[in-house]
Amino acid sequence: MQSWQTTRNTYEAAALAALDIALRPVTMRDHKTGREFTDWNLARASSVDPERNGRAFITGVLRQSGAGTDLLHPYLIAMRAMHNRARLLDAHKTGGMRLAEVAPGSFLIEPGPAPSREGQITFTSADQDLVIALIGCGHALLDVAHNGQSHSYTLARYALPPTTAPTMPRADCEPLITALRSNALFPARRWEHFPLQIHALHCLRELRRHQHSGTWITVRHKTFREKVAAFRADASDHTLSHVQTRLGIRL
After folding, report:
1. Looking at the domain assignment, is residue 116 inside a domain?
2. Which alpha helices (DSSP H) does 153-231 contain, by range?
3. How far apart are CA 187 and CA 103, in angstroms?
4. Residue 37 lies in a domain
5. What's the pLDDT tens digit per position in 190-241?
6. pLDDT, tens digit, for every residue of 33-42?
7. Distances in Å between the alpha carbon of 94 and those of 48, 65, 143?
8. Cα-trace Rg, the chain
9. Angle at 121 between CA 118 and CA 122, to 5 degrees
10. Global pTM value
């Protein structure tokens, strides 16, 4: 009889999924409370990615050693993205948090006063996954706002330099955002710090969406799609209504 490793932690499951490890959700029920929960069966090893020269990740090794002494191991980077996601939700109440460097160029947000915006060149976005990935790369969270429907986040456009090279130029987030939106990150750059976090957060959303499927899941890379349309300046109300319906936006 096959014995599976399992986890009930969806954050851990998403981090493993980001490393191409297949998972299968199994719906369980607590016999005392009647509450349902999901156990994730884990494949023994990942599929083989040519970008890693044909080397697979071994699930048991990752979970037992926490990726060993490699502080920038893809598994740890993916788990930090999960941590930052949880802390970002806390920041909805506090308005901001401080950055703590836990590995060269890899940061967590923790409770504490937000950095001052004075003298900062800022970047604002409502894309939560993008914001979390940039925070993990050292872009400080300066402010959180809510417009009654959704949150928007203001970050420092330039990241903190790693302590191992404090005099190096501060990285600009714009090239990362451009590469993401032009689909230049996957698959060739997928193991870099920023795209790995983006993919891990995408995996979390996909696992939750399919947690009642009962089938084995391998999450593909997310392709960025920007909805655009061109129409005449004197377009009729009927045309504008049709465009809005197709794109799901209000003009």
Report:
1. yes
2. 174-181, 193-209
3. 24
4. yes
5. 999 999 999 999 999 999 999 999 999 999 887 776 554 444 555 566 665 6
6. 878 889 999 9
7. 42, 34, 9
8. 20
9. 100
10. 0.84
Q: What is the pLDDT of residue 228?
A: 45
Secondary structure, 3-state, 17-41: HCCCCCEEEEEEECCCCCCEEEEEE
Between CA 56 and CA 44 the distance in angstroms is 10
Longest dimension (CA), the chain: 69
Is 236 within a domain? no
Six-digit token string for 194: 């920023």
State yes or no: pLDDT of 47 exceeds 60: yes
Token representation of residue 230 = 């061109």
Report the domain count for the chain: 1
Q: What is the mean pLDDT of the chain?
A: 86
d(CA 92, CA 74): 28
- For residue 60, the number of C-alpha atoms closer than 13 Å in the C-beta half-sphere is 4
Residue 23 included in any domain: yes
Quick check: helix, strand or coil at residue 124? strand
Give the structural domain span for 198: 5-209
* DSSP states of 49-116: PGGGTTPPPBHHHHHHHTTTT-TT-HHHHHHHHHHHHHHHHHHHHHS--EEEEEETTEEEEESSPPPP
| Contacts of residue 97, Cβ cutoff 8 Å, sequence gap at least 6 | 87, 90, 91, 109, 110, 111, 112, 114, 141
- Per DSSP, 189 falls in state T
Give pLDDT tens digits for 16-27. 999 999 999 999
